[in-house]
Amino acid sequence: MSGITDRVWGALTSMIKLEDKVSRQTEALKAHQSKIEDLTTRVVRLEAQLELLTGAAMIKRLKGD
Q1: What is the pLDDT of residues 25-40, one digit of tens each?
Q2: How confident is the model at residue 65 (pLDDT cuts 50, 70, 90)?
Q3: Which is nearest to 42 in space by CA: 50, 32, 52?
Q4: 4 vs 8, 9, 18, CA distance in Å?
Q5: Which 8-state DSSP code applies to residue 65?
């Protein structure tokens, strides 16, 4: 009887540890997703600035000719 109890207890302990690992991974994934979204926003802003500067340089070049 003790062997069965030990195995059940071991299984429950493993499940609890697994659940904890999954919870930690979920939190880490959320943090990474947030960082990715922030970086995406920054890249979009940089692309917009680059397009504006490129356009302004082309206009300046055309006016200079």
Answers
A1: 999 999 999 999 999 9
A2: low
A3: 50
A4: 6, 8, 21
A5: -
